[in-house]
Structures are given as structure tokens and as C-alpha cells.
Specification:
The chain is of the alpha/beta class. 22% of the residues lie in helices and 35% in strands. The protein is built from three helices and six strands, in the order ββαβαβαββ. The chain has helices spanning 54-62, 75-78, 98-116, and strands spanning 2-14, 27-39, 67-70, 88-90, 123-131, 137-145. It has a six-stranded mixed β-sheet with strand order 4-3-1-2-5-6. The longest helix is centred in the last third of the chain and has 19 residues, at 98-116. The protein is elongated. Bound molecules: zinc ion (ZN). Zinc ion binds next to strand 2.
Length: 146
């Protein structure tokens, strides 16, 4: 079994629509993300003799840095007349909760693997941990063939 771990940090804001409490208001976190990818044996680029580029996975977290994380329901931040579209990233689901930020990163990791090694039919175990604060972590993991 081979394991690859990529970590990153990003400063980003969000708010939870319909939430009763302080998380309903725009606020920021210094988020930390960890992506752990496992495979029995990673495919390798034959010329470079390397598997997955760490940078490609860390770019997932970099892409969220200094952004407003929103859901498709947040009409205010999705209105280009009110907020620059390049400053907004739409998370899956109904709110940009830590669960949905992790799911977004998982989907991005799947895209990275599919792009790097298309059609290889490798079974990957992908684990994403998103740390919202010093004490709040959320982890999701999936096993899938890409
Ligand atoms: Zn928050």
C-alpha cells in the first residue's frame, strides 16, 4: 500500500444561511486541509517516474485562499453586481459548512487523479480532513476506482 499526504492552509470566509446563531453572519477562518490518498500502487508518469504531484493536490486548498465560500443558495454573493465572481467559490450542498467544504475538496481530488492518470482503473482510498478552527475537524473518506 502506498500513501500520499498533502496539507494546505487557506484563509476564507463563509456564512450559514438559515442558521440560528452567529454562524449566520459572514466570518472567516484559517482553515487547514489534509488530503490522504492511498492506493495499492500509484500509477506513475513513465518519463518522470513519479506518481501524484503534491502540488496538484495542494492547489485544491490554494484555490480556496482569500475566497468567499458560498452555496448555490447565496444570491447576494452570487450577484456579480454586488461581489466579484473571482472571489467566490460555490460549495456543494445547501450551505458552505465544513462538511461541504470537505466534499468539495474530495471532488476536486477525484478530478486531479482522473486528469493525471485517465482510464487507469486504480482503486484509491481518499480521505479529506478539514479543520475549521483549532478544535473542530471534519473527515470524510471514500474508496473509488478512477
Ligand atoms: Zn465558520
Amino acid at each position: 500500500m502506498e500513501t500520499l499526504r498533502a496539507q494546505g492552509k487557506f484563509h476564507a470566509a463563509h456564512r450559514q444561511l438559515e442558521y440560528q446563531g452567529k454562524c449566520a453572519y459572514v466570518h472567516g477562518h484559517t482553515w487547514r486541509g489534509t488530503l490522504v490518498v492511498r492506493a495499492e500502487r500509484f500509477p506513475r508518469d513513465p518519463k518522470l517516474d513519479m506518481s501524484v504531484d503534491f502540488g496538484a493536490l495542494k492547489d485544491i486548498f490554494k484555490g480556496l485562499d482569500h475566497k468567499m465560500l458560498v452555496s448555490k443558495n447565496d444570491a447576494r454573493f452570487l450577484d456579480p453586481a454586488l461581489f466579484e465572481p473571482e472571489g467566490v467559490v460555490v460549495m456543494p450542498g445547501e450551505n458552505p459548512s465544513v462538511e461541504n467544504v470537505a466534499f468539495y475538496c474530495l471532488n476536486e481530488a477525484i478530478s486531479v487523479l482522473a486528469e493525471l492518470f485517465p482510464g487507469q482503473q486504480v482503486e484509491y482510498h481518499i480521505e479529506v480532513t478539514i479543520q475549521e478552527t483549532d478544535n473542530n475537524f471534519y473527515t470524510l473518506d471514500r474508496t473509488l476506482v478512477i
